[in-house]
Amino acid sequence: MTQPQLAANWRDYYELCKPNVVLLMLLTSVIGMFMSVPGMVPWDALIFGNLGIALCAAAAAAINHLVDSRIDLVMARTHNRPIAQGRVSNRNAGIFAAIIGIAGMAILLVLVNPLTAWLTLASLLGYAVVYTLYLKRATPQNIVIGGIAGAAPPLLGWTAVTNEIHGHALLLVLIIFIWTPPHFWALAIHRRDDYAKVDIPMLPVTHGIAYTKLHTLLYTILLFVVTLLPFATGMSGSLYLLGAVCLGAGFLYWSIVLLRGNNPKAPMATFKYSIIYLMALFMIMLLDHYLLPAMTIFEVDAR
Ligand code: HEM
Ligand SMILES: CC(C)=CCC/C(C)=C/CC/C(C)=C/COP(=O)(O)OP(=O)(O)O
């Protein structure tokens, strides 16, 4: 017979960091770095910048686990989390978050630049304090406003390399900011009853599922338009445009299936698609940034 596991192991601390979320954020910060320069990103910015951003994002995630442990225990999706189950005590979680958060800030301050450090701290506090402690329990627009913190990594990557806030970096932030509501609401539709049980005013609880589906589609349309801006502003080329249109069409397809309501799998399929979408969009942007100029040089050489 298996005994309930009460002692924490490294996997519990790893889980506190929301590793998959942080990994996708890192992908966007790495790509923000590469988009900020025509050639190679300096190795020190690449390594220490991403390490610092990852540690601060993980600290914010651990604080979110700590603050939410009581509601996490009640919700089916989060029931088994380390603090909710008592495998990690509040004290140890707090110490862990403080150590990795301070380490991340020190790395950014000393080895990267103060601009990146302060912007990262603002994102950490934006998610761990403003979103988790206040917005999440206060308004159904919680994830729209709180989304600014999660959208910051490409800007953090950009400033880690250039020490400057550039309009193109803000465009990348805007894309993730507009992507966040359809990403989250698709999941929240699936988990509506969980949120209702713990009295968290997520949109499907306060305004109903039909309203949330409509708003998911409206944000997806807006996202489609916003993802055309990198091409319109000359930041990205035609390969990116093709990718953004195809990926955007896929997202629109799932939002429409979701709205029509004939497919019970649509909410989770839309949520999963949102993650693949963001990953693929940023990777195509990177390919476009390097591959197209390289191919042009190759064509000129061949003539
Ligand atoms: C305020 C903004 C956001 C909210 C409210 C939100 C909400 C969520 C929720 C509730 C989950 C499910 C987690 C679970 O099942 O344990 C999730 C998963 C995920 N989110 Fe978000 N998210 C936000 C922003 C972001 C951002 C900015 C990214 C990355 C750039 C991201 C990437 C992911 C990934 C990769 C997963 C899958 C995690 C896994 O399978 O373990 N999210 N999100
Ligand atoms: C420094 C920096 C870039 C900070 C960003 C921090 C960060 C990890 C943001 C993640 C966004 C997210 C997963 C929100 C879900 O929280 P939730 O509480 O609504 O979801 P849950 O119920 O799964 O915990």
Could you characterize what this model shows?
There is one protein chain. The chain has 303 residues and is an all-alpha fold. The chain folds into two domains: 1-165, Tetracycline Repressor, domain 2 (Orthogonal Bundle), CATH 1.10.357.140; 167-303. It has 15 helices and no strands. The radius of gyration is 20 Å and the shape is globular. The N and C termini lie far apart (73 Å). The mean pLDDT is 95. It binds protoporphyrin IX containing FE and farnesyl diphosphate (FPP). Protoporphyrin IX containing FE is lined by residues 20-21, 24-25, 28, 77, 131, 143, 146-147, 150-151, 176, 180, 183-184, 187, 275, 278.
Structural class: mainly alpha
Terminal-residue CA separation? 73 Å
DSSP helix fraction: over 70%
Question: CATH topology of the largest domain, anyone?
Answer: Tetracycline Repressor, domain 2
Write the layout of secondary structure elements.
Blueprint: H1 10-16, H2 19-35, H3 43-67, H4 69-74, H5 90-112, H6 114-138, H7 142-151, H8 153-162, H9 167-190, H10 192-197, H11 203-206, H12 209-226, H13 229-232, H14 238-260, H15 266-302
Helix pairs in contact: 2-3, 2-8, 2-15, 3-5, 3-6, 3-8, 5-6, 6-7, 6-8, 7-9, 8-9, 9-12, 9-15, 12-14, 14-15
The structure holds protoporphyrin IX containing FE (HEM) and farnesyl diphosphate.
Farnesyl diphosphate (FPP) is lined by residues 18, 21-22, 25, 56-57, 60-61, 64, 68, 78, 120, 123-124, 127, 132, 136, 149-150, 152-153.
Features:
303 residues; mainly alpha; Tetracycline Repressor, domain 2; binds protoporphyrin IX containing FE
